[in-house]
Design goal:
single chain; 146 residues; 2 helices; Immunoglobulin-like; globular; mainly beta; four-stranded mixed β-sheet
Length: 146
Amino acid sequence: MNSPEAVQYSLDLGVDAVTTDFPIQNHRFLKGQPVFPGAGVEIVDSVNNPAGDDVQPENGEHVVLRNTSTASVDVSGAIIRDAANNILTVGAGYILAPGAELRVYTGPGTDSAEAYYNGGGASVLNNGGDSVALWTGPRLQDVFAN
């Protein structure tokens, strides 16, 4: 269970224990502490299996990031990593204003303020559901599972 929501769902089912790739964050969650103190950016969606090909120009699989803080956040160079250790990166120059969102795509496309395209030719995200984590440098910012 890689997200606090998935851990809670499992506990609600009555399990005795869960396994996670992020034990520190889920320990904080279970103690009622902030899971990602001061992070400022969260993963709000992971579109793993869009209509048509997973990787298509200007569209396809992607992860949506949102700035939840009251200050602009530079996400340039941030890494989105899935459970299989596949990686999507955010290009240089991406500074999210408060409330702004950024879609980070696997495939090719035209970069804009709202979208960054990694230019890959193969799908990265697992179609059957995946968990992804957002890293800025050595710091884990957020996790998302669907």
